[in-house]
Amino acid sequence: MSAGPLNEIFVLGVVRVIDRKLLSSYSSSSFHPSLLVSLAAAYPAFEANLRQTKECSDSNFHFLVDDGGLLYACLSAKSYPSRLIFTLLEEIQENFAAHHTREQIDKAEEGGSKENGQFSKQDKCWLQGLAKKYREAACVDKLQSIQKKVDATCGTMQDSIATLLESDDTLESLTNATESLSHQAKAFHRRTSALRSRVQWDAIRWRIAVLLVFALALSIVLFPIILAARKPRDPILPLDSAPSSAALAPGMGEGVEPPLPAE
C-alpha cells in the first residue's frame, strides 16, 4: 500500500505491553489499527523508555515504551523523518496520560470497539488532531521552525523582561540606599550642629568663669589697698606751736598748788 502525498501518517495507537492489548487508536488510511498489535507482538519483550523504528514493506513502524508498560506506536510513510515521529509519539504520551488515569488503564477491557481499542472513541478528537498536525513532514518542519523562532523570541523577551526587572530592582535598591544615606547625612549634620553649639557654649562659660576668677582675685588684692588709701591721717604740728601742758591737760592747775621753789 502507498500513502497519498498529503497523508504520511497512517495509524496511531496505544498498546498495553503486558497483554498486547490495543487501548486507543486512530487510522487515517486503509491500514487497520490492529496492525499495530501484530507488529508489537513480534517483539518478545519491551524495555522501559525504549524507542525504535522498524522498516516494513511499504511503511515504517515506530514506537516508544514508557516506564508504565504502555507502547505508543505509529505507522508512517518510509520518507517521514523519524525525529518528527518520536516528537508525535511524545505528544500522544502526554495527551493519553492527561485523559486517562492509571487505574482506568489497568482495568481497561476490550469493550466497545474490540478492534480499535476501548478508549478510541474518547481519544478520537485529539488523536485525529495530531494526525492532521503531523500529516506532512515538510509542513511540520516549517511549523517547528516557526515555533522555534517564536520560542526563541519569547525566550529573548522573557530574558529582557527579567533583566529589566533586575535593573528596576537595582534602581530601587540604589534609590533606597540614596535616601538612607541622605537621612543619615541629615542626622549627622544635626548632631554635629548640636555638638558645635555645645562646644561653643562650653568655651563661653569657661571664658566667663576665668574672667570671674580673675576679677575676684583682683578685687581681693586691690580692696585692702583702696581701703588703706581712703583712711584719714593725723596732721603733724611744728615744735613752737606745741600745746602747753596746761593745754594738753586742761584743768590740771585748778585746785593744785604750784610747787615750791628750792631753797
From TrEMBL:
Classification via PANTHER family: SYNAPTOBREVIN HOMOLOG YKT6
Gene3D superfamilies: 1.20.5.110, Longin domain (3.30.450.50)
GO biological process: endoplasmic reticulum to Golgi vesicle-mediated transport
Transmembrane segments annotated in the record for this chain: 206-229
Disordered, as annotated region: 244-263
SMART domains xrefs: Longin (SM01270)
Residues annotated as domain Longin: 44-123
One term of GO molecular function: SNAP receptor activity
Family the UniProt entry places it in: Belongs to the synaptobrevin family.
Name listed for the protein in its UniProt record: V-SNARE coiled-coil homology domain-containing protein
Residue span, V-SNARE coiled-coil homology domain: 142-202
Organism lineage string: Eukaryota, Sar, Stramenopiles, Ochrophyta, Eustigmatophyceae
Membrane topology classification: Lipid-anchor
InterPro entries named among the record's database cross-references: Longin-like_dom_sf, Longin_dom, V_SNARE_CC
